[in-house]
Amino acid sequence: MPASTVVGIDGSAHAWRALDWAADYADRHRLPLLLVHGSRALLDEGTIPPDALRRLTAERQDLLAEARQYVLKVRPEIDVETRLVPADPARALVEESEHADLVAVGSRGQGGFEGLLFGSVGLHVAAHARCPALVVPRPAPYPPGASTDIVIGIEGMDDERTSIEWAFREAASRGARIVALHAVGGEFSPRRRVIEDLELSESLAGYQERYPEVAVDQLVSDRTAARALVEASESAGLVVVGARRRRSPLPGMALGRVNHTVLHHTRCPVVIVPGSG
């Protein structure tokens, strides 16, 4: 069975927007879609009466069923499954990411059953997912209305190969253009610009040959990386950034200041791609 596209469903408007993007991704890549709702309130710990627990479970199942019917109405060709998990929603999504091709969450959600707040569930998933994590912010358009530009932040590190490959593969599936963005964080001389342009070209070497249908623009910016990526998100359809795996015993990604800033201020969806190291 192919890996699935996983999306967190919590009843908020932001989760529904994430569902639109996850369904679009699953459709283009011909993957099944798994709708997940996790809640500690569903744990049978004897803290609530059995009848109340049954009503609560039925309520959450109805939420997932409604989301499934919505997807099948607009994209009937997708194989859509639902999963109700009696666990913390962040933990449930991270566990599902073990066998997923992509996991999607909405950000800055208000309300809903668990209030899918970016600072809690969304950030935890972005930092701990075992596959690329798609974070869809409040201002993001619906997929059909999004820009065809995919911006990828490039520092020139060896462990960026995974995120660059992911961005090119996604651009090929969308018919999108790649904007390869390298920020140097200050003014630079004409000589340094030539050097930075050459280094950016080296980072992209080989990808244009493997994906000849993907147009590529290279951009060297004097902005800081965080500011350059946030500004680029104003006109982009997607921002792609890599995340290094922690070298400490703690599991997950070391998102860093740049990724945190982008996740909190982006105007379009962001994909965090775990490094291969």
UniProtKB/TrEMBL annotation:
<dbReference type="Pfam" id="PF00582">
    <property type="entry name" value="Usp"/>
</dbReference>
<protein>
    <submittedName>
        <fullName>Nucleotide-binding universal stress protein, UspA family</fullName>
    </submittedName>
</protein>
<dbReference type="InterPro" id="IPR014729">
    <property type="entry name" value="Rossmann-like_a/b/a_fold"/>
</dbReference>
<feature type="domain" description="UspA">
    <location>
        <begin position="150"/>
        <end position="274"/>
    </location>
</feature>
<feature type="domain" description="UspA">
    <location>
        <begin position="6"/>
        <end position="137"/>
    </location>
</feature>
<comment type="similarity">
    <text>Belongs to the universal stress protein A family.</text>
</comment>
<dbReference type="InterPro" id="IPR006016">
    <property type="entry name" value="UspA"/>
</dbReference>
<dbReference type="InterPro" id="IPR006015">
    <property type="entry name" value="Universal_stress_UspA"/>
</dbReference>
